[in-house]
Amino acid sequence: MESNARAPDENEKKSLAPSDSSLSRQPEKRNRDKEKTADILDACKKKDLGRLRGLATSERGLISDPVRKWAWPLLLGEPSHDDVTVGEKGDVDTWKEMPKHRDEDQVQLDVDRSFIYYPNDQSPKDLEQRKTQLSDLITAVLRRQPYLCYFQGYHDICQVFLLVLDSDKRSTAVTRLSTLRIRDFMLPTLTPALAQLQLIPSILYAVNPKLCNHLPRTHPYYAISAALTMYAHDIREYGDIARLFDVFLAREAVFSVYMYAQIVLGRSDELFETPSDEPDILHSILSKLPKPLDIENLILNTVKLYEAHPPETLRPWSSISNFSVLKTAREPDRVVEQSLEDGEMYFNQQVKELKRAEQRDKILRILWKYRKPAGTVGLAVAIGILS
Predict the structure, then answer these.
(1) Phi, psi of 292 (to 5 degrees)
(2) Which GO cellular component does the record give, naming just one (predicted)?
(3) I need a labelling partner for 220 at 20 to 30 A (CA). Which of 10, 22, 175, 228 fits?
(4) How far apart are CA 206 and CA 356, in angstroms?
(5) CA distances (Å), 227 to each of 25, 148, 184, in order?
(6) What is the rounded radius of gyration, in angstroms, for the C-alpha atoms of the chain?
(7) Is pLDDT above 80 for 5?
């Protein structure tokens, strides 16, 4: 997809460079950050996405929010003129005239408890203004893409985008993220999201079978909060979550799943201290991120983990829907090439699969119920339901 983004000019590059006050007093570190900032802006100007992804993944990521506001939309595939949402073509209030989305009441409840941990220098008036902006952002996205289903924690993701991006970029970026990167979480059920988590035990077993066997054999629900919210609900330090978003937007959609597996692997000593016959305690440990969380080492080790055990080597991978974001966004370049219409098409295909699976499960339950009286009766009932 060809982007119509305007690259920063020389004066803007100077203003985007990290100021001395925002950097360490160590001259070497300050110079490295300035050099990397220049590299990032040059990659943005040339739309060299491969280079930009490498910079976003490497140490310190995209350095600062003024740089992220150029890079994040590009990583998401900033749209051509024809693909820009109505509100960003000029009439920013068009969404207000659209039908109310079914989940707006829950949106407001979540917005009311947003911005708890960051930013921490805002007045009550500033806080209310941000909450209004957040509510408008989420509502605009949902009304323009009414098929999407809101989930609790979506506001945690959106508030990060609100803090980083300018108002004229937010809606398009969040819409593309929602339809092309986190679509599995915005379906009518959480089944596709839970299917993603099934990859975690497989990754753990590939690296450390002893640890995998030590952990509860139940579904890895402990990772659901982090997975759904791109870790934004679980990480309270703004700099850390912005840094993680750099790499999540630059890498494959499945990368965040590998990251949680890496977090578990890094806690093996702690986990082995808890007996395997204490599943509730193990689940409690697994559901909380370690503190402090060494973000840079975590990213580096997750990259190594992903390269050593790519998704195709994992047994549950074959069970992931071909319309899941894990496969439609298997390579980051594919997201850039996709349109919102592609995202809606994949969404509808996944919904059809979910309905077929639900119908199949219903038939199997009926067949089981009628297994003793007569197999033919159960079969007849099943055929009636199927028809």
Answers:
(1) -75, 160
(2) endoplasmic reticulum membrane
(3) 175
(4) 32
(5) 36, 18, 11
(6) 23
(7) no
Q: Residue 170: CB partners within 8 Å, gap ≥ 6?
A: 137, 161, 162
Give the tokens for residue 44.
């943005």
List Cα–Cα distances, 140 to 21, 143, 175, in angstroms. Answer: 37, 5, 9
Instruction: Say how many C-beta atoms besides its own lie within 10 A of residue 160's C-beta.
Output: 22
CB atoms within 10 A of CB 222: 21
353 close to 323: Cβ distance less than 8 angstroms: yes
Phi, psi of 218 (to 5 degrees): -75, 175
Q: Do 152 and 132 form a contact (C-beta atoms < 8 A)?
A: no
d(C-alpha 309, C-alpha 181), whole Å = 21
Where b means 16+ CB within 10 Å and e means fewer, 234-250 reads bbeebebbbbbbbbbbb
How many C-beta atoms surround the C-beta of residue 318 within 10 A?
8
pTM over 0.70: yes
For tokens 């408890």, name the residue: 113
Cα–Cα distance measured from residue 223 to residue 220, given in angstroms and rounded to the nearest whole number: 6
| Amino acid present at 380 | A
Contact 224, 193 (CB under 8 A): yes
193, 228 Cβ separation under 8 angstroms: yes
**How far from the centroid of its chain's Cα atoms is residue 177's Cα?**
8
Residue 119, helix vs strand vs coil = coil
Is 232 exposed, middle or buried, given 0-12, 13-18 or 19+ CB atoms closer than 10 A?
buried
pLDDT for the residue numbered 217: 82
Q: Average pLDDT for residues 122-127, to the nearest whole number?
A: 92
**Residue at token pair 């937010």:** 170
What is the C-alpha to C-alpha distance for residues 30 and 19, in angstroms, rounded to an integer? 9
Per the CB < 8 A criterion, the answer to whether 88 and 168 are in contact is yes
**Beta carbons within 8 Å of 171's beta carbon, 6+ residues apart:** 85, 87, 88, 137, 140, 141, 144
Residue 379: the pLDDT is 53
